[in-house]
Design a protein that fits this description.
Number of strands: 9
Strand order of the largest sheet: 7-6-5-8-9
Distance between the termini: 19 Å
Radius of gyration: 19 Å
Oligomer: single chain
Strand content: 5-15%
Length: about 325
Amino acid sequence: MSASTATRLHSSHLIAVADLTPEEILLILDTAEAMKEIGERPIKKVPTLRGKTVVNLFFEASTRTRTSFEIAEKRLSADTLSIATATSSVTKGESLVDTALNLEAMQPDMIVMRHSSSGACHLLSRVCRAHIINAGDGMHEHPTQALLDAFTIRERKGRIAGLKVTITGDLLHSRVLRSNVQLLRKLGADVWVCAPPTLMPAGIHTWGVTATTSVTEAVCDADVVMMLRIQLERMQGHYFPSLREYFQLFGMTPERVALAKPDAIVMHPGPMNRGVEIASEVADGASSVILDQVANGVAVRMAVLYLLAGGSED
């Protein structure tokens, strides 16, 4: 396990994996290891962010990301405020910038935001003094998901460099794909991607990955198999004949998992569509680390909050 030579993040925001150096990624992962120990204590709380205010601003539905950020903030003793847009002035026509400026006037220290528009978090970082953390923006990026995925892989495999990581599913609409490809490649993984031609992003061959429409080829000898959800809510038109046919051709079944290495792990960022991109036998099987991903999300987000607040090596 490589130790990071960095001691803090160079940016005051976490908008995209593209902004992180490999050393900063390792710093976050190493810090998350210490944060995970806090969650195993009888009293799961430290005073690290006491006196800091964190606003969770979610314009899209979320279970895992929102909940794990809230738990992470509370474990670090921050004062938290969660705003659901359904109960905010956004429903009255208030713009994102006006919402941000009004929040800024209340002087929060950090804003965690999820938004349906790509680049929304970057816009927020230009008008707010608070630290901005991207919890998913449109089809752009989801950096903390990629970080917790990398943490889980390293925890199970001891390394990331040299591993064959296969990502299959709805590649076209996935911000998780974009963040994971960048992060895993920065840490030396051999990334393969697989999807029907209609769900393959244009120019994906320029991303430094091996792209294929054959699940057999993609999964063969893989160390890690990562499934992505079919995002029907983002699809305008027909990308495949039916969900049943998609599962038959691209769904992760026990037979397909058997093509990977014997100690391969299966991942999914959630929410899962059982019987569409993944069989229940695989999701609940011995190779699945899906619930580990959820647990590790808290530790990784604690690390991000801590480091953006100016945490030191100590």
